[in-house]
Recover the amino acids of this structure.
């Protein structure tokens, strides 16, 4: 059984050199001490595996090959960099490839174990042919496409509970009947021009625990139950917290934990293999963000750990 009383592990690109070379705008929101504390806390809960590189062929199944080549070569302009949110460097490409590889590896784990975990991921603003909002590759859509193309899932739920609408995901999976995209987000937050998901739940500024959980119960749960997915991607954004630098909602740490508990317990009890990605989180207090991230891990492990293991 080893040091852990469960079979799960987490994949991370945070230990790559590319994460030590983050451009300054990203460090402002994700300070280095956040990554160290997160990795230390996660390693006490489950084995951490370094992210494998995503094969470019899988990225090309979702993204325009010319777009990918242009970014690989650094043939971008200031408008491209402004849309992404920070300057181009080789580390930007390496980091995205590692993060997307981590989501794919976690998806393979979910098929085998029931639960797969990427400590990062959730770059849901990336489109087929352009980057937006810290997102160059759409890691979840790449893994969705891999599942569909290999016939390992037929009814996939992408449950996006990041504070920002997953506009890239909505556009990339529009018209795909084998995928249900659900986004619960702040109505007046980025992206200011929204796309159309299968279900969009737009919440007013300052939404608190009670209103958020009620929206999950009354607006999201019936749609998900009617769809009856056979695989789940859960984007567990921590940027719904009150005090997040890029969020407009007002959940407490206890509210986020209850959100996670409801989603993950449903997925585990109904036997849906689930890939968990952490998505956004930019809290003013790094320790609060670390605590909430680790609580999400604890909740996932409690929901999915087999009894008697």
């Amino acid at each position: 059984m080893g040091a852990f009383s469960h079979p799960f592990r987490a994949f991370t690109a945070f230990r790559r050199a590319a994460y030590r070379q983050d451009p300054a705008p990203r460090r402002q929101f994700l300070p280095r001490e956040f990554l160290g504390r997160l990795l230390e806390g996660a390693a006490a809960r489950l084995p951490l595996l370094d992210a494998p590189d995503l094969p470019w062929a899988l990225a090309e199944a979702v993204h325009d090959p010319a777009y990918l080549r242009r970014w690989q070569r650094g043939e971008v302009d200031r408008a491209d960099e402004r849309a992404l949110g920070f300057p181009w460097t080789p580390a930007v490409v390496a980091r995205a490839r590692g993060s997307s590889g981590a989501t794919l590896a976690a998806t393979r784990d979910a098929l085998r174990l029931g639960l797969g975990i990427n400590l990062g991921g959730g770059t849901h603003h990336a489109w087929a042919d352009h980057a937006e909002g810290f997102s160059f590759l759409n890691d979840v859509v790449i893994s969705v496409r891999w599942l569909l193309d290999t016939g390992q899932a037929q009814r996939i739920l992408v449950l996006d509970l990041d504070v920002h609408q997953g506009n890239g995901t909505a556009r990339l999976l529009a018209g795909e009947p084998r995928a249900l995209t659900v986004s619960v987000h702040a109505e007046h937050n980025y992206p200011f021009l929204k796309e159309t998901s299968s279900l969009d739940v737009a919440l007013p500024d300052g939404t608190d625990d009670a209103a958020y959980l009620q929206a999950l119960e009354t607006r999201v749960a019936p749609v998900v139950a009617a769809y009856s997915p056979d695989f789940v991607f859960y984007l567990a954004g921590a940027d719904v917290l009150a005090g997040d630098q890029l969020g407009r909602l007002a959940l407490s740490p206890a509210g986020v934990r209850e959100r996670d508990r409801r989603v993950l317990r449903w997925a585990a009890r109904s036997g849906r293999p689930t890939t968990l990605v952490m998505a956004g989180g930019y809290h003013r207090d790094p320790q609060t963000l670390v605590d909430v991230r680790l609580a999400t891990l604890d909740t996932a492990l409690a929901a999915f750990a087999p009894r008697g293991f």
Remarks:
- The first helix runs from residue 17 to 20.
- The two ends are 8 Å apart (CA to CA).
- The chain has twelve helices and eight strands.
- The chain has a mean pLDDT of 93.
